[in-house]
Amino acid sequence: MAQFSYKGEEFPYSPKEIHLSAAKRLGQFPLAFGGTSIQQLGKELLEISGTGELTGDLAGEFARLYRLFSQSDSGILQLPGFSPIHCYFTALEGVGQPGPAVLEYRFTFVEDPAYADILGASGDRSAQLLEGETLYTLARRLGVNAAELIAANPQIADPMSPERGSTVWLP
User: Fold this and answer.
1) CA angle, 19 then 22 then 28, to 5°
2) How far is C-alpha 124 from the geometric centre of its chain's CA atoms?
3) C-alpha triplet 145, 149, 154: angle, nearest 5°
4) Do the beta carbons of residue 61 and residue 15 sit within 8 Å?
5) CA 129 – CA 137 distance, rounded (Å)
6) Strands annotated E in the chain
């Protein structure tokens, strides 16, 4: 089972709690002859939050979390039992009594919108190639194995020069 990590930085203790929050945006519209219609207007970005405990060198461990939190770009979050998620580290809080024993921390990550639509509405795992992207650079961007990505896409003859906007099936 994968260990709790963000941007490749592993943490010695898995979170005590993990909360995944997904929501849809709905609109309510009046119908011409009475009543209303509810329509889906899209989805909110996935939010991942939770709590954990730091022990040992509390200042050093919290500083390591804070350095990751302070970075402005998104990265890959790996939670035990879940597929990797591209997200931003948006909140970090240490909670506890001063002292050497244990420090509880709370964290929040929000899905990176650039990667939010990898799972299509039908549940198919696919992605669209960007301008100048190869199957190798797409694999790196999505955090998947390049050989498996190429094998899953036999319709793309040359993995080094696929057509922009092509649908790529993820392994």
Assistant:
1) 145
2) 17
3) 155
4) no
5) 10
6) 5-6, 9-10, 17-21, 24-30, 36-43, 47-55, 75-78, 85-95, 102-111, 126-128, 167-169
Hey, CA dihedral for 170, 140, 22, 49, is it positive or negative?
positive
pTM of the model: 0.64
Q: What is the pLDDT of residues 3-40, one digit of tens each?
A: 788 888 887 677 888 999 988 888 888 888 888 888 87
Tokens read off for 4: 């709790």
Check if the beta carbon of residue 106 is closer than 8 Å to that of residue 49: yes
Residue 85 CB neighbours (<10 A): 23
Determine the residue type at 73: D
SS3 16: coil
The rounded Cα 166 to chain-centroid distance in angstroms is 23
Residue 158 has pLDDT above 80, yes or no: yes
Strands 102-111 and 85-95: antiparallel
How far apart are the C-alpha atoms of 40 and 42, rounded to whole Å? 6
Q: How far apart are CA 4 and CA 80, in angstroms?
A: 6
